[in-house]
Amino acid sequence: MKNTNKLLLVSMLGLGLGCSAAANAAFEVDLGDDQKIKFGGFIKIDGRYVDGDVGYRDFWIGSGSVLPEDASQFKMFANESRINTTYTNGDVTGFIEMDFYGGGGNEIISNSSHPRLRHAFIKYKDVLIGQTWTTFMNTSALAETADFAGPMVGEAFVRNNQVRYTNGNWQFALENPESYGGNPNEDAMPDVVAKYNFKGDWGNVSVAGLFRQLNTEMNNSESAFGVSVAGKIKTTGKDDFRFQIHTGNVGRYVGVTAAKDLVGEEVEESTSYMVAYRHFWNDDTRSSAFYGNITTEESDADRSHWGVNVFKNYTPKLALGVEVGSFEMADQNAESMYLQFSAKYSL
Fold this sequence. Notes:
Blueprint: H1 2-15, E1 27-32, E2 35-54, E3 66-77, E4 82-89, E5 92-99, E6 116-124, E7 127-133, E8 159-167, E9 170-175, E10 191-200, E11 203-215, E12 221-234, E13 240-248, E14 262-263, E15 266-267, E16 270-280, E17 285-296, E18 302-313, E19 318-329, E20 334-346
Antiparallel strand pairs: 1-2, 2-3, 2-4, 2-20, 4-5, 5-6, 6-7, 7-8, 8-9, 9-10, 10-11, 11-12, 12-13, 13-16, 14-15, 16-17, 17-18, 18-19, 19-20
């Protein structure tokens, strides 16, 4: 009865998350009997000015859209804000997270946005089952940016439903297949990922391999292989260098729609990379400079994204930042510059 009352209290507190800044402090409650529940996330408010001939869609996705002529736009939004819950019971952990990129709403009256599921998985000892970042990714190698995820054209950036097994530095996964550009209705084999993580006081580097069986629009089966090397290396003081390199038939796993898995009856081949350096000016202020690029063989795409930013923590939980950058589609002779301001309150 005592644990039931605690769980009821936590549930009631959880309903208040998002009502006000004061109600959004992250907290963990020990329910007893080796059970814990934790709420987390952040509130993020962005203002962005864009000028150029590439259309902006919430964040710089690899496909972009070329405008008939140069245009300028200023928008403010809060839909990157997110909330998550972690429940632990002994060796079992459940995690669920959502943000508000689910579409809906309007800017005439309410600016409402639908919630969207990001992560939902169960982890028991060394086995994870559910939806989360693909095992092909190294999340520590993502640049710190004001723009959502930054130079995604050069990053592995996919969430998949999967079954993952971790054994020391090794990770193996069977992940949800999708023949992007082909006929996904005939996908019969899961994607296979194997990754080895090198770790030390110096940082970490991961080497990953990807194998898939893709299905073309004519229902022909094609094999696809890809490799990735990514990491975060500590330099001087608190500074760090982050990088990613991907090549082969990585398709939808890299670049956020910059490359399809299949172009007609051919398997797409791409090469992409991202580099970022983060420098701490002092304990409260830091900057990152980043660049990402992807090129493809079959579709002849050439997309790049660079940016420079500065963030200052006014409290341990509250940070304000500004970023200037550019997104370019060299294959279509199109480019846009942007200036973004962000306020982020971590719960």
